[in-house]
Structure formats: C-alpha cells, structure tokens
Write a structure and sequence with these properties.
The protein is an alpha+beta fold. Strands 21, 22, 23, 25, 26, 27, 28, 31, 32 and 33 form a 10-stranded antiparallel sheet that branches. Helix 5 packs across helix 9. The protein is elongated.
Length: about 900
C-alpha cells in the first residue's frame, strides 16, 4: 500500500452557496481533452511487455484527467514512447507493501535503464534511442505494482503519485534532496486523496467504513491518523516521536526493493500527516487554489531543513489569496496556525462528526491511541464544579482532554435544553499568543485575553474561553459515552517563535448553591404588613454568569471611609449570585450572548448535521419558550428565587482564606402590589440614644464572612455565610431596635475568576483575537461566492446531511443561469446591481464610510443570484439610495 520515498458578516455567510466537485466521470467528459496517458506493462523478471488490465488503464487515465481538470494542466510526465506519455504497470518477482512510486521510470533493466540519480536527456540531439523508441528528458513518470495495488485503492495511490510529479516539477528538492516526509508524503496523501473525496467510495466516511476492520494499516494511512500531541514537524525532535503507534508495525515501511527503513515509524507518520495537508485544500472553498499557489513558491535552499519547510508552509498559506469581483482576501489568513488548529480539532472527533460510527477501529480506545501518545485527560465535573491541571504542549501539537458534566434540563418549557456552560482558563508566561482551544469539532475563536502590564509580577497572561457541554453521540457504547473532547492547541503564528509551553488550566462549571432560611416583612395591598417566609432555594448547583469578572481597582475618590468599611465601594469584588427563577432569567441573556459568540462559520459542521455550539444556543424555540414562560409567571406573581449580591475586598491573585463580606438578598417572590426592604448582612455597629429608650444608628457592620478556597487566573471558588437583617417592621419597637434579624443565607460558588483591569489593574484586555476572527468571517464570506465548480470544500454525498445536500443540489442545478440575478424573469442590469450594493452598504454602514466600503466589497464578491431577493425588493421600493436589510422582513 505504501508509496516509496525514492520516487464578513454572518448575514452574507448565511446567504452563501456551495457545490460538489465534479465526479470522476465528469472529468472525462467533453470539457476535458481526450486522454493522452498510456500505461505500459512489463514483467521485470523477463523484461517482457505484458498486457495492462483494462480497469487499471481506465483508472489511471481517469485520475490523470481529474488532476488535469483540477490543476488546469496535466501532471508532468516526460517518459514517452512514440511521442505518447507513459505510466507503467509492473509485475515484479518479490512482493512488498510498496504499491506505486513516482520518479525515474523506464520499462526495462537493459541498456535503457538509467541509474535513478542520473541527470539525462535521452532525446537530446534529436532521435530517440533504442528500438522501442523510448524517450525521456527528465525524471517524471509513475508506476503501479501488480501485486500490491488493489481494486479499491488504486485511484488513491495513483492520485498520490501524481501529486509527487507536481512536487518534483515545482520544487526539485522534494524529489531527491531529502525533504521531510511530513511535507512530501503528507502532501501526496492529503491533496491526492482529498481530490477524490467527492468520488463514490473515496470519502473519509467510505474509507473509514471500508478499512476499520482490516488487519493492515490502511485505516490510519488513508485517514491520516498520526500522533498529534507531538510536533507537526516530526523532524524537529525525532526523539519526541513515539514508536508505539498501534498501526506502525501492521505493515512495516519498506522501499520498493523490500528494504526496511530503520526509521520507518517516522516515515509512516510523514504519510499520515496527509490529514494536515488535506485540510489545506478541503478546509476552505479556495483551499485547492491555496495549494496551487504554494507550489509556485520556491522551496528552501536547503531541502533537508525541516524547519525551513515549516516556514515555507506558513508563509505560502498566508500569501495565498482569492480574488473575485474586485475583492481579494487571504485564503488562510492565519497560515499554519489556522490550518493545524482547525484540522486537529475536527480530526479528534472524526468518528462522531463525519463517520457516525464507533465500531472496530473507530471505537474510542483504539481511535484515541492512533492520535495521542498520552491518554486524554479526564475532567469530571459531574460532581466537582472546578478542576485544575498542568499540561505541557509542544509546538504545533495538541493536548487532548475530555470533560463530563451534568446536562442542563429545560425548565418550564418543552424546548430542548441548551448546552450547559463551562469555561477553560489557560495561564502562564508568554503562552497566550500561541494557544487555541477546540471542542466537539469547532475552535472557540473569541477567548477573553488578559495580558499583564509591564512590571507586573505573577502570571504573565491568561486566556478564558467560554464553552458549552453538548457531547457528541453520547448513546454509542463504543464512543465517548457522554464525555466531550477538549483540545488545548499550541500553534504559534510564527514558526520561528515556537516553543513548548507549560500551561495551568482551570476548568470551571460556573455554578452556585444557595439556601435561605427565615421570614421577612412585606407591605401588601393597602399598606398592610405581614411576615412572609423567605424563598425556598434549591440548595443545589445552579448556573451562574459564565464570563470572568472584570474589576477596576483604581481608587474612587467619592468612596468615604464609612462606605468602605461596609464594603460598599473601593477595591472590592462584587459577585452577583442568582437562584431559582433569577437564574433562569440571567440564563436567558447568557444563551443569547453565547449563540452569537460561539458561531463557527469556517468549520462546515452543518454539512455533517452537527450543530455548532452557537447554533445549539441559538435554537429559536428554546430562547423564546424560556423567555415567554418566565414573563408569564412574572406577570402572575409566581416567580420564585432570589438574587444574592456578595461584596468583599479584592484578594490578590493566589491569596486564599477567610475575609469579611457584605451580602444583600432580594427575593423574587413578590406578589402584585407587594413591597419589601432589602435584606442585608449589615447590623448596627454604633448607636446613640435619642430618648424614650430609642436609638439612632450611627454606623454599620457586616456579619458575613467569605472563605476563598481557590484563587487562580480563571478560577475563584469559595463560600459565604451570613445572618440577614431588615428594618424592624414594628413601628413601636423600631425606635428601640431599628434593625432585626430576618434569616440566614449560605452560598457556595465557582466562577471563572476575577481580573483587575483598567488604570489601576495589573491586566489589560487584548482584543486582537476577536478582531482577527472577524477578519476570518469576512474572508469566508468572500470565498463562499466562488463559482460552485471551483470550490474544494464540499463534503461527499455519503457524508453530507440530507438537508444540506438538497441545498447543494439546488445550487448545482442552478449553477448555470443562476449566476445572474433576475426579478420576475427579467435580468437585473449591472448598473442596478451596483446601485443596490451601494445603497445597502450605505444603510448598514451607519454613516461610517470605511465600514460601508468594507460591506460593499464583501457583497461584490457574492454571486448576483445570491442577492436576487434583496435586489428585487430594493427595485420594488423605488431604488432608494439607502436600503436596510431589515426591509426584507
């Protein structure tokens, strides 16, 4: 089976179309020139010509034509007989796993067989040499070995070799110059196989199902399942790369002469790096274009320098652009970092996202062992509310973890429950610019980023990602069984600045458990006072704010000593705890925010019927049903629960212990017309007599205490207890005892931490991540407008969700005349189209010329047919100079 080495805006995204690659048969239709490739058969034991099986001939020609169609030029083959280019079908004396090879190929061992390393020109000076009229002017052809090339994988192996021919033509160092396997063989596998994914039987799902039960190594070889917790650049430190991969020794890597490579496990991992190169092409609509442009760039002066090739990969990805209708965007703006992070995040959950099967080699223990040297670390938050661990992550590598949490139940509605929130904080010195976090197939692209100011001691930086718990296919007994993959990825933006990072991780389930006991006074209708029991709270963990708390410790000149003494102002931390229906009300807002922040337009998960976390949060009936039920209960006075405000002096990072606190409780169970005073932990500290046994309160003190048990970047845990007081409702007794006890409160909490920011804080917020993600969204919007036949990211028919497949089929069916906009059968003129774009950009730009220009640029990149409905509405409205998309509703 082995091939030898010797040889913009979310709106525009939502409007974007997609398409499938043309089929193998279509590659041979009237659009492509007639097949020019011949296949010559030879028996090496007899030096005699043999017949080439018709099916081998057909497959070789079909793949050759497919490559010519996709690359716009034929693969470079210069071995010719009688003017016709030739590949070779070889029968050899001794079988070995090498099934095909590319490079110096002439049919006979006799006088025409030139040493493989020779430079020659058999056609130089005119006449071809030899009676067979063979002619060769370089080192380019490929051969297939009859004993090893199988009926099902022949196309894959041929496609692999044809990529080699392009490499050898474009970058000579990739042939005989000692370029690393992860580059040369990884490209050949990833691009070669990726080109065939739209062909029946060659999708990743089809290959996985075909090979999952085989005893050989086809499964990991064709799917690119190598260890990714060690560097992508295997040659960076070969001592890091393990030899215990489960499939290394299923088929030992030998050359075409049958010799075992001493470092065969490294060579094999190079082939498996095809999963990275596949994503270069398949991860973007213009991904194949990016690869083509990369091949046009000169390789490193020293082709044996693996790091130089890593830099070549990064710079080539960043330089590749896509242009259409006056708009030019980067295809892979983030370069190597972006490709690697997206690829490994999806690959980790490939069985559940793409294949949807966990039998045989797809079962969790075996599949994990193919990807991770170290077992995935389990973070069990089903009972615990937080967990901390330290991990070491190599550059361009990932640390696998698995999280398990209680699944949130929908409350008071029939709607599906949203994902339960959790946060992950990573902190360390100099780590933040390099780290990404992925879960269930998507990158969490907009973490909160905090960097310490110059001169600040302690933690250098911290990142906090919000995530949601929605495990993939938890019912499969061979799968992850309710655990959810989380990957911490070390992917620097510059290969020259790569280093291994030691990172502190804090996983937090943002919850609080609260109890209230006692009674308080309420004023009812007509001012009638009565005692009412405090709301009965659950006493079990309830979801709280999922974001870290930002505080500004800058001194407040308006904060006097009396206020500061009772923690009403100053350098304090103020936590807002919600319980019961208060938690539900706060949760509704969190759901809306998460639905926006956790979108993932570059992932294409919807094609596989997998919702992103943003889509799960954004499910319409869920939010509307929750909000509607709460509103109805509030109008009827049927809410239960409370809000609990906790204030304490801000503890410096790392400081734990018991401290004074201030607590205020506001019950939610007010009936219409009811009023009550706030319940606080404040009681009289100093009083003065005012006669008749009455007193006046001069100052207050708090009886509440908070115990902080963990105080790290991204994690603050503790508990609070207090006696609650209220104004005395008995008018006669109130002058003698103005404040009386009403009850008690106890709260335990876990939060995503506290970060001091602002002029007086040690951290500053870095917005670069969010800004970068917005640029990626704009890039994707422009590329989604590619002509359907040019796109390289469409899933295979057997992988795609039926609903998405119907959309693609409709796009393909209309891909001819569908590239123009029509209104009631009349074609929209270019002038109207341009005026519409200017009017819409003006409306959306809200007076900002730069924003309007940016929106117009994105719109001009779209196919006119995508804009048809909006254009027609604009025309019907009288062609206004400013047009809002809200007019479409």
């Amino acid at each position: 089976m082995f091939s030898s080495r010797s040889t913009m805006h979310a709106f525009w995204i939502a409007m974007a179309g997609s398409t499938a690659l043309s089929s193998l048969a279509a590659a041979q239709d009237s659009k492509a020139p007639p097949a020019e490739l011949e296949v010559f058969g030879v028996d090496l034991t007899t030096d005699k010509e043999i017949a080439v099986p018709p099916e081998v001939m057909a497959k070789a020609r079909g793949i050759f034509d497919l490559h010519r169609d996709k690359f716009g030029s034929p693969p470079h083959i210069d071995t010719r007989q009688n003017g016709k280019i030739n590949a070779f079908y070889i029968k050899r004396a001794k079988a070995n796993p090498a099934a095909a090879s590319a490079g110096d190929n002439l049919p006979y061992k006799g006088p025409f067989q030139i040493p493989l390393t020779a430079k020659y020109d058999l056609c130089g000076g005119g006449a071809a040499k030899g009676a067979e009229n063979w002619c060769k002017s370089g080192q380019f052809s490929f051969r297939m070995f009859a004993d090893a090339i199988s009926a099902w994988n022949a196309e894959l192996l041929i496609s692999h070799e044809l990529i080699h021919l392009r490499q050898y033509e474009k970058s000579p160092g990739t042939k005989a110059g000692g370029a690393p396997f992860w580059l040369v063989e990884g490209q050949a596998n990833g691009i070669g196989y990726g080109l065939l994914e739209r062909e029946p039987g060659f999708s990743r799902k089809a290959i996985a199902l075909k090979t999952k039960g085989l005893k050989n190594a086809n499964f990991s070889f064709f799917l690119g399942l190598r260890r990714y917790d060690v560097p992508l650049d295997i040659n960076r430190d070969t001592g890091l790369y393990p030899i215990d991969h489960p499939e290394y020794f299923r088929e030992l890597l030998r050359d075409e002469d049958g010799n075992l490579h001493s470092d065969g496990y490294l060579d094999y991992a190079g082939y498996q790096t095809g999963s990275f190169w596949r994503h270069v092409m398949r991860g973007r609509p213009a991904g194949l274009l990016a690869y083509k442009k990369m091949l046009d760039r000169p390789g490193p002066s020293d082709p044996t320098n693996s790091h130089a090739w890593l830099k070549w990969t990064d710079s080539g990805l960043k330089a590749a652009t896509y242009s259409r209708r006056g708009t030019t965007v980067p295809i892979w703006r983030g370069g190597l970092r972006q490709v690697f992070s997206e690829m490994v995040t999806e690959l980790a959950d490939l069985p559940d996202i793409v294949v949807k099967n966990r039998t045989d080699k797809l079962a969790a223990p075996y599949f994990d062992a193919l990807l991770w040297t170290r077992s995935c670390k389990n973070i069990d938050l089903t009972q615990a509310t937080a967990a901390s661990l330290r991990v070491t992550v190599h550059p361009y590598a990932a640390q696998c973890m698995r999280v398990k949490m209680p699944i949130e139940n929908a409350t008071g509605t029939n709607a599906a429950a949203p994902p339960a929130p959790f946060s992950v904080a990573a902190s360390g010195n100099g780590v933040c610019d390099d780290l990404e976090l992925g879960t269930r197939g998507q990158l969490l692209a907009q973490p909160k980023s905090f960097k310490a100011k110059a001169g600040a001691s302690g933690t250098n930086c911290a990142l906090v990602w919000n995530a949601g718990f929605a495990p993939l296919r938890p019912e499969d007994p061979n799968g992850l069984r309710g655990w959810q993959t989380v990957l911490l990825i070390n992917a620097p933006s510059d290969p020259d600045r790569q280093k291994t990072h030691d990172v502190l991780l804090n996983f937090v389930r943002p919850v609080a458990a609260s109890t209230l006991a006692g009674t308080h006074s309420v004023d009812g209708a007509g001012g009638k006072k009565r005692k009412k029991p405090l709301p009965k709270l659950k006493g079990t963990p309830e979801i709280q704010q999922a974001d870290p708390l930002l505080v500004d410790p800058t001194p407040d000149e308006s904060c006097d000593a009396r206020q500061a003494a009772v923690l009403a102002c100053g350098d304090i931390v103020a936590l807002s705890i919600v319980s019961g229906d208060a938690s539900e009300i706060a949760r509704a807002g969190e759901i809306l925010s998460a639905g926006i922040a956790m979108q993932y337009p570059q992932g294409g998960l919807g094609n596989y019927a997998v919702k992103t976390l943003g889509e799960l949060y954004q499910q319409g009936q869920q939010f509307e049903a929750r909000a509607g039920a709460l509103q109805a209960r509030a109008m009827g006075g049927n809410l239960n629960g409370a809000t609990i405000a906790i204030a304490m002096k801000r503890p410096e990072e790392g400081v734990v212990g018991r401290f004074p606190a201030r607590v205020e409780v506001e019950p939610l169970d007010r009936q219409p017309g009811e009023n009550s005073a706030a319940l606080t932990s404040l009681t009289a500290r100093q009083t003065r007599p005012i006669g008749n046994g009455c007193v006046d309160v001069l100052s207050y003190q708090t009886n509440a205490t908070v115990e902080i048990s963990v105080n790290q970047p991204g994690l603050l845990m503790g508990s609070v207890s207090a006696t609650l007081y209220e104004p005395n409702a008995d008018d006669e007794a109130a002058c003698r005892e103005p404040i009386v006890a009403a009850g008690t409160v106890q709260v335990s909490f876990s939060t995503p931490g506290v970060f001091p920011v602002g002029p007086g804080g040690r951290y500053q917020v870095d917005p670069a991540r969010s800004e970068f993600q917005q640029l990626i969204v704009q890039d994707m919007a422009a590329m989604m407008a590619m002509p359907l036949e040019e796109r390289s990211d469409t899933p295979a028919d057997d992988e795609i969700d039926p609903a998405a497949g119907n959309r693609f089929a409709g796009s393909r069916a209309g891909s001819g005349a569908g590239t123009v906009a029509q209104c009631q059968g009349t074609m929209v003129s270019d002038a109207d189209l341009d005026a519409f774009i200017r009017a819409t950009a003006a409306g959306a730009g809200e007076g900002d010329p730069q924003l309007s220009a940016q929106i117009a640029q994105s719109m001009r990149a779209l196919e006119p047919a995508i804009l048809a409905m909006a254009v027609c509405r604009w025309i019907a409205a009288g062609r206004p100079s400013t047009f809002a998309l809200g007019n479409l509703e």
